Amino acid sequence: MTTETHAPDRSSGSGPLARSLVKLAGTPDDASDLDAQLVAIAQLAVECLPAVAYSSTTALREKAYTTVAATSALAAAVDDAQYDARSGPCLEALESGAPVAVPDMATTMQWPGFRRTARRLGLDASLSIPLFAGRGDAVASMNLYSRDKTAMADVAAHVRAAFGTGDSAPPKRRHTARPPATGADELAAGLVEALAVRDRIQLAIGMVAGRARCTATDAYVSLRVRAAEAGVPLLEIATRTLRRLP
């Protein structure tokens, strides 16, 4: 049995990986297809990012960490080492809501169990990126594993810039001619837009909570129910709320 794959559209940063990240940001946390979206994003990361050899996705389910998606058993093994130790970059990214990079497995002193497993399996660098759904909290951490430290450093710089963290950013290019977009460009563009979606929904949640004098959780549920009743995406209801539409 073969699986048909398609080359990602990198013309404007609106390829399948970027679109999937944006779609996830507007998806209710209890949506039936949430895990399917996470699986698709992990696969697209490997397809779109040449620096990435393997990808996986970590989530916290019923107070236990689990790998929701993995493009190889190797990635799952590195995740398991972190779960066993109850520490590692994927757990930190999920808990903090910020990306966590390991630029060189050989020199990092943190997370010894993770480091030993990753190095034994021939990995040189990693990057864990929190993923957000409609409620606004991180629902998963996408873990990118690489055998190319230099290429992975560029991906990490793009991600840090997208989150507005760190001191470095992707190098600026001359504007005399538009350069071809890269997988890292697409990833960063998707993250920027996904974070913008999250911010819009959070603003709407805050508005509803203020008007109804209720908790943020109750306000989110209210928006979720209204979206379901109207048969429109959560983001649409959030946008209507911010525009003071019924």
TrEMBL record:
Name by which UniProt lists this protein: GAF and ANTAR domain-containing protein
Residues covered by the ANTAR domain: 181-242
Signal peptide start and end residues: none
PROSITE patterns noted in UniProt: ANTAR (PS50921)
InterPro entries, sorted: ANTAR, GAF, GAF-like_dom_sf, WH-like_DNA-bd_sf
Keyword annotations: Transcription, Transcription regulation
